[in-house]
């Protein structure tokens, strides 16, 4: 994953004699901030060429940030600074903005921070505010959480979503307004017929499909049944994966959704292999960047996943909210073969994940046949979320949870009650099931390992989206 490019502009006092006296001190404070951020390995810093003490320097610094195409800008204060300089820099420097006050009581960075933040808010710019020593892990984490959210908002702009097929099985929550996406997020929507996948899949060289099939047979367990899952059908699924990659490249798509049912699943093959390995950090040919792929052309699901991907820089889960086991207090998250194999072992190495994966024959829902990518999600804390519309306005619902490890006997017993051939993630929610069922907005959920709650909240504030946390 590429580093997040951020800009830093450090401000000063407009009086020449004060500026000169504090210049070296200001530079040292900036050095500390840069060093702390770059030490994380997540951030690429672009520094303004001057410490800003004049309007001309403020405009110059802002234009430098614009030219460098930073994803957000930090306004840095270690002394008293004239607030209008921050306002003028904001006319050019790309937002979102974070105002950062360093601890310097004799030359009050806190006063500079508050004066500048107040000035920005008066003109309708609402920056995040952070104060403290950059070497303090808690302070650094606050900075990083906002940077991740700001970067995610920035990276959505100009992206293209590829919609393979139309609305699936009457799901209103899976279809969104492309005009609204462009207006609110800067995302373009490209409609692609699913038949394009079939045409290209048929042209994928046989040797290429065979090589991929043998790679999969070597690392995972493939349960051929001679009917719905055969080597020929599996190679058809692999062909769909390569066809999707080719169309994604041709159409310059950034994330996608596949309708699948019923046209593909009735007449050609399921898209489970394509969906799982697009979302994975590897495929049959080696390491790659995950490409968010949502099943059932769930647009808001794909958008939620793309936000997660930019924040966490890991593969993202897509699942049905399938069943609640009352006695075990577990929510079963399952959806055909949609789960990336990454979740089977929580590793970037295919061999670590695929040893836990079974390519299982599909069931009666899918007469065309194919292999479901069956596994059980590795345990760990997770953040689940869904971006959905209520009366036309977006709301983010965030659900902290934990994927739990079950015994082999428990996995078999529970999965047999639901869908034995599909992947499962058994989630213990921080909230109770009654609250979840009352407020959760649809039938699909998405998530990543770890705690991304603060980042999602920052994202919502940046995009002026309401949010609710079910905890």
What is the structural class?
Answer: alpha/beta
Strand content: 15-25%
Q: Output mean pLDDT.
A: 96
Rg from C-alpha positions?
Answer: 25 Å
Please tell me what the overall shape is: elongated
**Helical segment tally?**
16
The unreliable regions are: none
Q: How would a textbook summarize the main sheet?
A: 6 strands, antiparallel, barrel
Number of domains: 2
What is the CATH class of the largest domain? Answer: Alpha Beta
Give descriptors for this structure.
alpha/beta, Rossmann fold, L-fucose Isomerase, Chain A, domain 3, 2 domains, 6-stranded antiparallel beta barrel, 16 helices, 21 strands, 40% helix, isomerase
Task: Explain the overall architecture.
The protein is of the alpha/beta class. It contains 16 helices and 21 strands. The radius of gyration is 25 Å and the shape is elongated. The model has no long low-confidence stretch (mean pLDDT 96).
């Amino acid at each position: 994953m590429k580093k997040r490019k951020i800009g830093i502009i450090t401000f000063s006092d407009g009086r020449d004699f004060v500026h000169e006296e504090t210049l070296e001190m200001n530079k040292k404070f900036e050095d500390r901030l840069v060093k702390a951020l770059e030490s994380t390995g997540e951030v690429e810093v672009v520094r303004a060429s001057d410490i800003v003490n004049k309007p001309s320097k403020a405009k110059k610094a802002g234009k430098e940030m614009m030219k460098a195409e930073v994803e957000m800008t930090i306004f840095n204060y270690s002394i008293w600074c004239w607030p209008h300089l921050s306002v003028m820099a904001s006319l050019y420097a790309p937002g979102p903005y974070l105002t950062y006050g360093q601890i310097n009581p004799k030359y009050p960075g806190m006063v500079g921070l508050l004066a500048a933040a107040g000035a920005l808010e008066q003109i309708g710019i609402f920056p995040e505010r952070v104060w403290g020593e950059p070497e303090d892990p808690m302070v650094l984490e606050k900075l990083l959480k906002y940077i991740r959210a700001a970067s995610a908002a920035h990276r959505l702009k100009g992206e293209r979503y590829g919609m393979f097929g139309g609305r699936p099985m009457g799901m209103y929550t899976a279809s969104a307004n492309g005009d609204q996406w462009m207006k609110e997020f800067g995302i373009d929507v490209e409609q692609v017929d699913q038949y394009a996948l079939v045409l290209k899949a048929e042209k994928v060289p046989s040797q290429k499909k065979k090589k991929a099939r043998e790679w999969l047979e070597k690392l995972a367990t493939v349960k051929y049944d001679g009917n719905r899952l055969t080597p020929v059908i599996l190679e058809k699924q692999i062909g769909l994966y390569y066809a999707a990659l080719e169309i994604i490249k041709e159409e310059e798509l950034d994330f996608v959704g596949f309708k699948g049912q019923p046209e593909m699943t009735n007449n050609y093959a399921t898209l489970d292999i394509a969906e799982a390995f697009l979302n994975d950090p590897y495929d049959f040919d080696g390491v790659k960047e995950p490409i968010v792929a949502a099943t059932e052309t769930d647009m808001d699901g794909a958008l939620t996943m793309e936000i997660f991907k930019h924040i966490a820089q890991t593969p993202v889960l897509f699942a049905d909210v399938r069943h609640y086991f009352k006695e075990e207090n577990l929510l079963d998250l399952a959806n055909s073969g949609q789960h990336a194999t990454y979740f089977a072992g929580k590793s970037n190495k295919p061999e670590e994940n695929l040893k836990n994966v079974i390519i299982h024959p599909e069931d009666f829902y899918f007469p065309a046949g194919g292999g479901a990518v069956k596994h059980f999600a590795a345990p760990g804390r997770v953040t689940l979320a869904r971006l959905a519309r209520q009366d036309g306005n977006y709301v983010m619902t965030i659900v902290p949870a934990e994927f739990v490890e079950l015994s082999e006997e428990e996995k078999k017993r529970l999965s047999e009650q639901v869908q034995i051939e599909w992947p499962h993630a058994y989630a213990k929610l921080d909230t109770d099931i009654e609250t979840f069922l009352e407020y959760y907005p649809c039938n699909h959920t998405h998530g990543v390992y770890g705690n991304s709650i603060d980042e999602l909240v920052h994202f919502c504030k940046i995009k002026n989206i309401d949010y609710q946390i079910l905890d």
